[in-house]
Description:
The complex is a heterodimer.
Chain A: H1 7-27, E1 33-39, E2 46-51, E3 82-83, E4 87-88, E5 91-95, H2 97-108, E6 117-121, H3 130-137, E7 142-148, E8 151-156, E9 160-164, H4 165-168, H5 171-174, H6 209-212, H7 216-227, H8 235-239, H9 264-278, H10 287-291, H11 299-313
Parallel strand pairs in A: 1-5, 5-6
Antiparallel strand pairs in A: 1-2, 3-4, 7-8, 8-9
Chain B: E1 4-7, H1 11-18, E2 23-30, E3 33-38, H2 57-60, E4 64-73, E5 76-80, E6 89-94, H3 96-109, H4 117-124, E7 126-131, E8 157-161, E9 165-170, H5 173-181, E10 186-187, H6 190-205, H7 213-222, H8 228-233, H9 241-244, E11 252-259, E12 264-271, H10 292-311, H11 321-325, H12 332-351
Bound molecules: iron/sulfur cluster (SF4) (5 copies).
Amino acid sequence: xxxSMGLExxxxxxxxxxxxxxxxxxxxxxxxxxxxxMEGTLPxxxxxxxxxxxxxxxxxxxxxxCYVNLAKYLVPRVPKFVNPEKGNLTVGVISKGCxxxxxxxxxxxxKINLDEIKIIGIPCNGVxxxxxIEMEIGEKEILEVSVFGDNIIVKGKDFERxxxxxxxxxxxxxxxxxxxxxxxxxxLDLCVGxxxxxxxxxxxxxxxxxxxxLTPEEKWNQITEELSVCTRCYACREACPxxxxxxxxxxxxxxxxxxxxxxxxxxxxxxxxRAMHMAGRCVACGACxxxxxxxxxxxxxxxxxxxxxxxxxDFTSGLDPDVLPPMVDFxxxxxxxxxxxxx
Amino acid sequence: MDEKIFAKKDIGKLLEELVxxxxxxxxxxxxxxxxxxxxxxxKEIELDYLNSKVPPKDVLxxxxxxxxxxxxxxxxxxxxxxKDLEDKILIFGVRPCDAYSFKLLEDFFASxxxxxxxxxxxxxxxxxxxxxxxxPRQSCFxxxxxxxxxxxxxxxxxxxxxxxxxxxxxxxxxxKSLVKKLTWLxxxxxxxxxxxxxxxKQAEESITTKxxxxxxxxxxxENFEHPVWQEISESCIGCSSCTFLCPTCTCFDxxxxxxxxxNRGRRIxxxxxxxxxxxxxxxxxxxxxxxxxxxxxxxIMHKFSYYPSNYDCLGCVGCGRCITACPVNxxxxxxxxxxxxxxxxxxxxxxx
Lengths: 343, 352
Ligand code: SF4
Ligand code: SF4
Ligand code: SF4
Ligand code: SF4
Ligand code: SF4
């Protein structure tokens, strides 16, 4: 990716624009609250915040550490944006592409009402792969992280290192084709910032061809090694905007459906079934990997799923609230090679 | 001089001598994370680390623990008790905060009418080799919870990292007999002991995060229903990282796993957390902590109010893991600030 200006300038511009829009929306009372990001108290992260007054607009930021998918805060499990007198509030959401996709996809599954939402679209320039940076710095305390020019600059007490942003970006950001939230033609006033109309997403998925070329055994080894440190805290699930079930399959306890230990078969089954539930629903935000306290990378699984869904159903999640996702829909012409033929 | 020293490069010697007698646990790197695992090869030991991702609590109170196994014989159920509880365990390189957490865990597992035999047996058979922190992190606050980056409490043998050598101090009786057995240790010089003292002082001075927890406990006790809990839980996504990585969290769930094809099964316990939607969910479907507001509050109340009233000490050792682990930066320092703000504001009201 060729950048026309340094990342810091690009980010400042995005930030200024989003603040201006946010201020306008609050002033004209077009929204009751806005969800956005604010500066974190530690390096390598940011803090989601919910604001309802114009003076707090200055707290909103954009940098390449805004990795939480804010769509998560709107899933229906815990209705948060309700006022006893006013009823449902109108919520503005600072939306990079995958946040916008998350919201639109949730609407396609009938989980949120887009009439109560304003997508404040921003042209996302990606987020940092924070775990990879942490792993490479290793056992030294990181005190400061900034992006400048084309680099991520990481400082500690007696070290300073630069990482090229293009390489140390979150893997799903590297292949992202939907940097601005999709424009929904039927509700043009849904998007108030920079959104874009997408027709057919073209993706060659070359990033996973190397993985695909492995033998089943090599794939098994790679994935099980990745999952071997999982503590089953479920942070991946809790951060995922598509994991909104009141009771997750893995928590079913009357009776218990799946083993709950950290033995490999149990860990594997959790991730396998969660992956199945993500097919055609994952919006490629990478939040699940970026929040994992153990630094587990689930991106490859997500990319492979995305590819399968694209090839079989020509579907990209989170583009149109009126198109039913493949796992929710049934079409006669769907391939069913697994079913026996009648003779 | 009572203190001993040994060269870091002799760590293999220590391992070799102790492995026949103990299950030797030490920090090692697994997929980029420091963890305490049973070591058989000296090459696995990592001596240059800040602290482990998952606390060494995991050795004595692991994420998954088999309580017992059982088998069916005809109509009878035969319980097979664990046989490994008498094994001697040695945990090398435990940071002072985590060593102190063993005391808190003991308070919990030995309190009241229920003695947790498994934990207590393991604890009894465990020897803790502590290691002082030369470089506390910004998120460390052990000095605010009665600890210190060079605190020796709850360790059996205590090490200070002097660069190429470790200074060795025997703390408990268990530690003294262990050190006596290691005849190859050399005597420390006065300069070594002085250096350790300097390092301890420097480490203490470098700690920047400080709290007045007496006040925190008082404010918490008076503000169970305060709207601040709404604010504190607002951005929390309930991911459990703060509790799963906490060295003092003790919640667990008990599960029976039946292997009917083989006519046997096991009863296990796994970590649970107050951040989970299943926590305290009753059979009727009622949950006294139905939403994040109650769950976030429970974590904070448990550490800083219930522990002081039940055990007369804080339920936190100041390791800072919950600070660095929270993916939405809803970290303890901010939470405590918000809690103390209640007091400041009410103070203003009184004086106004
Ligand atoms: S966040 Fe990481 S450690 Fe937690 S359940 Fe998911 S993969 Fe496992
Ligand atoms: S599975 Fe991961 S990448 Fe996909 S939507 Fe959920 S959090 Fe985002
Ligand atoms: S509450 Fe936080 S700082 Fe205290 S012991 Fe637990 S993880 Fe460490
Ligand atoms: S109640 Fe919560 S904070 Fe307390 S020990 Fe259990 S998980 Fe930890
Ligand atoms: S780590 Fe943060 S987001 Fe996760 S449960 Fe704890 S406070 Fe909530």
